[in-house]
Design brief:
- One of its GO terms (cellular component) is cytosol.
- InterPro entries: Ac_transferase_dom_sf, Acyl_transferase_dom, Acyl_Trfase/lysoPLipase, Mal-CoA-ACP_Trans/PKS_FabD, Malonyl_transacylase_ACP-bd.
- This is Putative malonyl CoA-acyl carrier protein transacylase.
- GO terms for molecular function: [acyl-carrier-protein] S-malonyltransferase activity.
- The chain is of the alpha/beta class and 307 residues long.
- The protein folds into 2 domains: 226 residues, Malonyl-Coenzyme A Acyl Carrier Protein, domain 2 (3-Layer(aba) Sandwich); 60 residues, 2-Layer Sandwich (Alpha-Beta Plaits).
- Helix content is 46%, strand content 18%.
- β7 and β8 form a beta hairpin.
- The strands form 2 sheets. A 6-stranded mixed sheet has the order 8-7-2-1-10-11, with helices on both faces. Strands 6-3-5-4-9 form a 5-stranded mixed sheet.
């Protein structure tokens, strides 16, 4: 079984995911999250708007993903590769051995803080579907926004300040966009506006940078290039904060490694759905489809052999 792992980014986290993490987190993780998220960790109800705040979303999502990974790892074959969508690349690096889970929770909080400190006014990301790349590029130029993510099937994400994003959305509507969605993200990730955050986060990553090999390849969300060493993976991890992502190229690089199955470690199912749309011959599912890690194991064990 050749398994590829995708770690999702921000945008599909929900109160149900937060409650699931509260229930599954180890005692040590509970203590660390109570320290990192003192305003919300003990709450029985947390609203979606709160979970969209960078300083809460990033440590929470990372911890959720790594709790699932730790439960899954002894049940699954070693992955042929892993990739992460935006924040998910931090989880991919951790899963491959660049740092441990508790160091990663701290890094997630530091990543969020470095990004938030770059922007002193309201900003974020919008997704635009149904327009070719050349239209998106003209829209970003006209609206003073920035191309952040290229997804397959004319699904693009742009970032900028709120007033500029509103202008961009109007231009996209006028040009016939099929759908325009404001994402549950409050910083213009993967744009030049966050260049200072890349520099700050590089300093946070410095204690972990070494030439040691990773447990498996981590593919960069920027362009699909594979990292075999901790050093190379961490360089890409810092750079993608302020550089555009070509997620389509990353998925193509995974496809070239000929996996038998793809597993998304969420929150959400967006990456699995995207994969199934463009590569229907290789099955992909998300942990959100299962009630337990053993359900994932059972699915993989009963997949028909690929020819």
């Amino acid at each position: 079984m050749r398994l590829a792992i995708l770690f999702s980014g921000q945008g599909q986290q929900s109160p149900e995911h937060f409650q699931a993490l509260q229930a599954m987190a180890s005692e040590e993780t509970q203590i660390q999250l109570a320290r990192q998220l003192p305003d919300v960790w003990q709450n029985t109800t947390v609203h979606c708007e709160t979970l969209g705040q960078n300083r809460i979303a990033q440590p929470f999502i990372f911890a959720f993903q790594l709790q699932w990974w730790q439960a899954l790892r002894p049940l699954l074959p070693a992955p042929v590769c892993a990739a992460g969508y935006s924040l998910g690349e931090l989880a991919a690096c951790c899963a491959a051995g660049a740092f441990d889970m508790h160091e990663g929770i701290t890094l997630a909080a530091q990543r969020a803080a470095s990004m938030d400190d770059c922007i002193q006014t309201q900003a974020g990301l919008i997704a635009i579907m149904g327009l070719p790349l050349k239209n998106i590029q003209s829209i970003t130029t006209a609206s003073n926004t920035h191309l952040a993510i290229i997804n397959p099937d004319q699904h693009h994400v742009i970032g900028g300040l709120v007033q500029d994003l509103q202008h961009a959305a109007q231009l996209a509507h006028e040009q016939g966009a099929v759908r325009i969605v404001r994402l549950l993200v409050q910083t213009p990730s993967h744009t030049v506006l966050l260049k200072p955050a890349t520099l700050v986060f590089k300093r946070h990553l410095a204690p972990y940078r070494r030439k040691a090999p990773l447990a498996f390849k981590v593919l960069s969300a920027m362009d699909g290039r594979s990292a075999l060493s901790v050093e190379h993976a961490l360089n890409a991890l810092a750079e993608q904060i302020s550089h555009g992502m070509d997620w389509g190229a990353c998925l193509q690089a995974i496809r070239e490694r000929q996996p038998d199955a793809v597993l998304e470690i969420g929150p959400g199912r967006a990456l699995a759905r995207m994969w199934n749309t463009i590569y229907p011959d290789i099955p992909a599912r998300s942990i959100d489809d299962f009630r337990s890690p053993t359900g994932v194991q059972h699915w993989l064990e009963h997949l028909p052999a690929r020819r």
